């Protein structure tokens, strides 16, 4: 097969990206296109607005929902340590074992998936001008032909750049006509032009309240933002889409609540973002990790991931901060004498934007001004649920209720 590879931040994925994909397919130069949302790209290391899992699922879900044939989304960059330079992405993606399994997993017939493939790296004409400055451009050209999108008027520039690349590095360059809108992700965010995103992307953005003031993480240190991005990539291995996005949403909301209630924004971001990190581990593993953090205080299967998550965070993420670990440990039950940080994570877990289990409007309003009142409202709905299902309320939740005067 002739496979086009389209890497990018996709922050957000927009109609210009779709035009690029559709035009490449229409040109007949490639049989399919694999989009590769960047995890840690060399030009924008940690500067994307959203961490990688949001952007990966945004692209993947959009393409699936629109049902665009012969377009697939790869998570290959999640497996690359450090900066995911194009040359490393290409190496990982074109590795025969990987590409065959990936194509088969995407629904391509086994015979086609096993063919000898030819790879094309999709790029805009503006990017072609900087290609020679990329990391190991010669090796990129050994693995892939550059497939350059041209708009009317671009031809001379492309010709000049191509000549220089061919002379200095060798390699193949092909050009295809690009039809469709011109827009940029940064422009869309800056000018609030989200109407330039496809419908499924708009739904995704709305569900998780992305590109809002909270997702800008103002007041969070660069170091904490970097950790937030790194942990989001690490957790991708351990959590499915829904839970991973939920736990990241809790981080973003916790950072906002920390601003409102005067807690440490960095700690709130991290504690919230990782609070469910252990929830999809094998239950015996959860039990072992839970015991390590808090002995046999938690025995109910549904609670094990909280103390288990604290151990996981310490061992796998190197988090030593006791306040963060405790906020993770007590996010399900609460406890007596909770710190503001613990309350924030507890609350954000129940009301982050993608939560829809009940009408949360009133609690969300309360959470903007009165932490204990929002806690009371949340705990009381938890209590009602437990009573309805005939379950006992955990003694530590009873301590929390007493503290809240319930
Ligand atoms: Fe949880
Ligand atoms: Fe949660």
> In oligomeric terms, what are we looking at?
single chain
- The chain-level structural class is alpha/beta
Strand content: 5-15%
Mean pLDDT: 95
Radius of gyration: 24 Å
Number of DSSP E strands: 6
Would you mind describing this structure in some detail?
The protein is an alpha/beta fold. It folds into two domains: 2-200, HUPs (Rossmann fold, 3-Layer(aba) Sandwich); 219-403, Hypothetical protein af1432 (Orthogonal Bundle), CATH 1.10.3210.10. It contains 20 helices and six strands. It has a six-stranded parallel β-sheet, with helices on both faces. α2 links the parallel β2 (32-37) and β3. α14 (283-294) packs across α15 (305-317). The longest helix is centred in the middle third of the chain and has 21 residues, at 241-261. The protein is elongated. The model has no long low-confidence stretch (mean pLDDT 95). The protein binds fe (ii) ion (2 copies). Residues 275-276, 279, 305, 331-332 line the site of one fe (ii) ion.
Provide a short characterization of the protein structure:
It contains 20 helices and six strands. It is an alpha/beta fold and 406 residues long.
């Amino acid at each position: 097969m002739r496979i086009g590879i389209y890497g990018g931040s996709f922050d957000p994925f927009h109609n210009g990206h779709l035009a690029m994909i559709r035009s490449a397919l229409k040109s007949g130069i490639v049989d399919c296109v694999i989009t590769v949302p960047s995890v840690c790209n060399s030009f924008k290391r940690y500067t994307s607005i959203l961490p990688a899992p949001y952007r990966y699922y945004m692209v993947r879900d959009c393409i699936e929902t629109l049902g665009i044939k012969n377009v697939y989304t790869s998570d290959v960059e999640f497996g690359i340590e450090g900066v995911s330079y194009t040359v490393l992405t290409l190496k990982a993606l074109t590795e025969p074992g990987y590409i065959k399994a990936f194509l088969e997993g995407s629904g391509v017939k086994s015979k086609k998936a096993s063919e000898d493939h030819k790879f094309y790296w999709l790029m805009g004409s503006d990017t072609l001008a900087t290609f020679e400055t990329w990391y190991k451009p010669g090796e990129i050209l050994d693995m892939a032909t550059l497939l350059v999108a041209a708009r009317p008027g671009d031809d001379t520039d492309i010709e000049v750049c191509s000549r220089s690349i061919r002379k200095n590095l060798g390699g193949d360059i092909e050009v295809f006509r690009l039809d469709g809108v011109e827009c940029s992700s940064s422009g869309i965010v800056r000018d609030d032009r989200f109407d330039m995103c496809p419908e499924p992307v708009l739904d995704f953005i709305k569900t998780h309240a992305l590109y809002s003031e909270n997702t800008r993480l103002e007041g969070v240190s660069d170091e904490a933002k970097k950790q937030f991005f790194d942990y989001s990539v690490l957790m991708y291995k351990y959590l499915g889409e829904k839970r991973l996005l939920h736990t990241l949403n809790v981080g973003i909301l916790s950072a906002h609540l920390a601003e409102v209630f005067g807690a440490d924004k960095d700690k709130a971001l991290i504690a919230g973002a990782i609070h469910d990190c252990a929830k999809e581990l094998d239950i015996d593993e959860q039990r072992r990790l839970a015991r390590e953090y808090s002995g046999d205080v938690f025995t109910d299967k549904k609670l094990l991931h909280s103390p288990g998550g604290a151990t996981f965070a310490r061992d796998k993420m190197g988090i030593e901060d006791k306040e963060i670990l405790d906020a993770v440990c007590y996010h399900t039950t609460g406890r007596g004498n909770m710190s503001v940080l613990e309350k924030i994570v507890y609350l954000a877990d129940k009301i982050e934007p993608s939560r829809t289990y009940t009408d949360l409007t009133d609690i969300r309003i309360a959470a903007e001004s009165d932490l204990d009142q929002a806690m009371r409202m949340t705990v009381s709905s938890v209590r009602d649920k437990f009573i309805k299902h005939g379950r006992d309320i955990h003694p530590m939740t009873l301590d929390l209720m007493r503290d809240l005067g319930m």
